[in-house]
């Protein structure tokens, strides 16, 4: 293998697949809540030589030599996370959200002990106690549900907790369209002596922006992925407070005082091997750009406007001059479809929904294989210039689309037509 060849030269097939995926992302309107668009800096870090290094352990406590610069990277990521969330400890090594939740359970529970979380079919996550998942197999799961109107019934949750006496309570979800009352969950957990773990993966950006109440300082442990509203690479982090971590030795007891050590030892050596250093660097880079959102004018972060088709759009400023989340639903809370599935249970006063509009903003000029510049800049496809190629019409892009799926193309075309209206609405609110 020639190590000096770029991907298109070394592996044209993989390179072409990536090129096709790039076109798909530019031409489509992504509304999957677990996805977002990362910055060029994040992509640079992910493609860096940090992937070459093995770094089992933690900064200053590695099992391999030659990690002095890796320690710098991980310490930067940890300190930025601690500052961003206002905690004393952050573990930035989890490979993703599910392994992070597994580490939390491994740290706080013994096999067979009870954990309580939202029922999967009512918006919960697999790792919160679903039967086919590790959380439902190695622990005893107890599930709470929403009411018929979609709201959590905190009195019913308190009664269930009092009856079952779980050791750990998860608050958080993957599909809940309301705001979580972390203080009520705190009261419930305290009433039965349970750990409270907040999984904020889908709403962490809203928390940082100040438009959703924060679990930091309320929950014992907070887990969040970094690739959703934080706009970082795929991965996760675990935040908590307590005595400084001593990951090389077991704590004298399992208690909240020693949560940092318990969490660190659960991640490594409990579950994972060496961290993915290129991911750690990318997370740190993404976190560096989030402090501005935290300090921004909160009144401008969340807004609502009417669309020409009678639907409302709720959006949150992504901090880069474009909306990072927008939600569409009618007065009855029913959502339409535009390039992706909208599964909202909103109502008029909703502050966040499950599915989000992602606008692919301009990172840098690129080139089509035929030489023309392409751009992420939004253009009205009705005028013949859609998102993607700055020179050619939509026929240029259709050549590489999904095998000529006319229904999909028509649906995405309608979605693209709404981008200028959404952006104009956003700009008006910024004025």
Characteristic terms for this protein:
single chain, 431 residues, alpha/beta, Aspartate Aminotransferase, domain 2, 2 domains, 7-stranded mixed beta sheet, 3-stranded antiparallel beta sheet, 15 helices, 34% helix, globular
Q: What do we call the CATH topology of the largest domain?
A: Aspartate Aminotransferase, domain 2
Sheet bearing the most strands, described?
Answer: 7 strands, mixed
Count of DSSP-assigned helices: 15
* Alpha-carbon Rg, integer: 23 Å
Give the N-terminus to C-terminus distance in angstroms.
55 Å
Structural domains: how many: 2
Helical content (DSSP H or I, runs of 4+): 25-40%
Question: What general outline do the C-alpha atoms trace?
Answer: globular
CATH architecture of the largest domain: 3-Layer(aba) Sandwich
CATH class label of the largest domain: Alpha Beta
Q: State the total count of DSSP E strands.
A: 15
| CATH homology group of the largest domain | Type I PLP-dependent aspartate aminotransferase-like (Major domain)
The proportion of residues in beta strands is: 5-15%
Structural class: alpha/beta
Can you put this structure into words, describing what you see?
It is a single chain. With 431 residues, this protein is of the alpha/beta class. It has two domains: 17-34 and 297-431, no CATH class; 49-288, Aspartate Aminotransferase, domain 2 (3-Layer(aba) Sandwich). It is built from 15 helices and 15 strands. The chain has helices at residues 7-10, 12-27, 40-46, 68-85, 97-108, 134-137, 154-164, 182-192, 204-209, 259-271, 277-288, 291-294, 394-398, 406-417, 419-430, and strands at residues 57-58, 61-62, 89-91, 114-118, 140-144, 168-172, 195-199, 221-225, 236-240, 302-306, 312-317, 323-329, 366-367, 373-375, 388-389. The strands form four sheets. The chain has a seven-stranded mixed beta sheet, with helices on both faces. Helix 3 runs antiparallel to helix 11, helix 4 (68-85) packs parallel to helix 11 (277-288) and helix 7 packs parallel to helix 8 (182-192). Residues 296-404 have low confidence and may be disordered.
């Amino acid at each position: 293998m020639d190590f000096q060849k770029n991907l298109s030269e070394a592996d044209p097939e993989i390179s072409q697949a990536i090129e096709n995926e790039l076109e798909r992302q530019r031409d489509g309107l992504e509304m999957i809540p677990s996805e977002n668009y990362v910055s060029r800096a994040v992509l640079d870090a992910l493609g860096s030589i940090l992937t070459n290094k093995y770094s089992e352990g933690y900064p200053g406590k590695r099992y391999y030599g030659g990690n002095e610069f890796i320690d710098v990277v991980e310490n930067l990521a940890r300190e930025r996370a601690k500052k961003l969330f206002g905690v004393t400890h952050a573990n930035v090594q989890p490979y993703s959200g599910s392994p992070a939740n597994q580490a939390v359970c491994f740290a706080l529970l013994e096999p067979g002990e009870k954990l309580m979380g939202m029922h999967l079919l009512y918006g919960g996550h697999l790792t919160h106690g679903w039967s086919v998942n590790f959380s439902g197999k190695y622990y005893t799961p107890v599930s709470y549900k929403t009411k018929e109107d979609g709201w959590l019934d905190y009195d019913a949750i308190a009664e269930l907790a009092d009856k079952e006496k779980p050791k750990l309570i998860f608050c958080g979800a993957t599909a809940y369209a309301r705001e979580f009352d972390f203080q009520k969950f705190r009261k419930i957990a305290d009433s039965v002596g349970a750990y409270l773990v907040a999984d904020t993966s889908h709403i962490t950006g809203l928390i940082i922006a100040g438009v959703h109440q924060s679990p930091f300082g309320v929950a014992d442990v907070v887990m969040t992925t970094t690739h959703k509203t934080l706009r970082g690479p795929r991965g996760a982090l675990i935040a908590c407070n307590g005595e400084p971590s001593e990951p090389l030795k077991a704590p004298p007891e399992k208690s909240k005082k020693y949560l940092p050590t318990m969490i660190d030892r659960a991640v490594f050596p409990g579950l994972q091997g060496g961290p993915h250093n290129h991911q750690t660097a990318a997370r740190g880079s993404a976190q560096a750009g989030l402090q501005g959102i935290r300090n921004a004018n909160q009144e401008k972060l969340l807004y609502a406007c009417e669309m020409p088709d009678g639907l409302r759009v709720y959006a949150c400023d992504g901090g880069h001059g474009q909306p990072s989340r927008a939600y569409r639903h009618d007065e009855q809370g029913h959502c339409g479809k535009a390039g992706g599935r909208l599964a909202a249970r909103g109502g008029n006063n909703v502050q966040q929904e499950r599915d989000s509009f992602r606008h692919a903003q301009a990172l840098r000029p690129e080139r089509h294989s035929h030489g023309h510049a392409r751009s992420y800049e939004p253009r009205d496809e009705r005028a013949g210039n859609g998102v993607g190629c700055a020179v050619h019409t939509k026929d240029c892009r259709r050549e590489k689309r999904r095998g000529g799926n006319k229904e999909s193309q028509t649906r995405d075309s309608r979605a693209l037509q709404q981008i200028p209206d959404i952006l104009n609405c956003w700009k008006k609110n910024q004025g």
